[in-house]
Amino acid sequence: MSTTFDRAALGARWIDRLQPVALLALRLYVGQVFFRSGWLKISDWSSTLFLFSDEYHVPLLSPGLAAVMGTGGELIFSTLLMLGLFGRASAAGLFFVNLMAVISYPQLRELECPAAINAHWTWGSMIALLFVFGPGRLAIDAWVMRRRRAA
């Protein structure tokens, strides 16, 4: 019986070695989704301002300020997350950007195709995992911490 348990523990240790790669892949996937969205907004700013004025209804912010903050959040937090720099803080920032997208665009929940809202749920779940587990060992954060401990 202990042999089976030992083999399972050994297998789990091998699987644990994949964690940094899995966290990196998660960071890169989610980061590129939000970076592309921000890049699209910044590349056609007049359309972005129109959307924030007529389609998106961000609570408590003017459309112009909401457009700047939303676009900036997508670009900055996604870049930081992909690099693994301030990993948990950037994950929290992207989670908030994602949440604001769902809150400010009510049509997202009313579309006949649930794929749009489901994508936001999926991204939110991935970002929450990155917040809880951190960016992993293949991140600038981990490199900085190793350097600080060695000094």
Overall body shape: elongated
Helix fraction? over 70%
Rg, alpha carbons: 19 Å
The count of helical stretches stands at 8
Distance between the termini: 45 Å
Which oligomeric state applies? single chain
Q: Flag low-confidence runs.
A: none
Sheet bearing the most strands, described?
A: none
- The count of strands amounts to 0
Residue-averaged pLDDT: 93
Question: Strand share of the residues?
Answer: under 5%
Q: Supply the helix-strand structural class.
A: mainly alpha
- The succession of helices and strands, N to C, reads HHHHHHHH
Structural features, described:
The chain contains eight helices and no strands. It has helices at about 1-15, 20-45, 45-55, 65-85, 85-105, 105-110, 115-135, 140-150. The protein is elongated and about 65 Å long. The model has no long low-confidence stretch (mean pLDDT about 95).
